[in-house]
Amino acid sequence: MKEIKSFNLKSLFKLGFFFYLVVMLVVGVIGFVFMVAGLATNFSQSAMTGALGAVVIYLVLTVVYSLLAAVVLALYGFLYNKVAGKFGGIKVEMGGG
User: At what angle do helices 9-41 and 45-87 cross, to 10 degrees?
Assistant: First the structure.
């Protein structure tokens, strides 16, 4: 049995940021498709301006959400490292290949 004693916080931060960034961008693409379909049925200057504003706000909030998720994941890793240092880490059995 192997034991996970600690996590590298920088790698956890990067993993959390890019994972949540990709997830939110995929969700955004799905939402964008529905927004374009809605604009096709009701096209006007104000609808187009609102749609453009929504896209910009969504992109900014996606980056903010990804940063927050990365910070939380790094915090969890920090807490795990402290607890594992005191009580021992998670034991994992690795299969041989």
Answer: 160
pLDDT in tens, 6-32: 999 999 999 999 999 999 999 999 988
What is the rounded distance in angstroms from the CA atom of residue 6 to the CA atom of residue 82? 8
Pair of tokens at residue 59 = 């992109």
Residue 6 and residue 74 in contact, taking contact as beta carbons nearer than 8 Å = no
Query: Does the reported pTM lie above 0.85?
Result: no
Residue from 8, 18, 19 nearest 81 by CA? 8
User: Do 17 and 92 touch, CB atoms closer than 8 A?
Assistant: no
d(CA 21, CA 7): 21
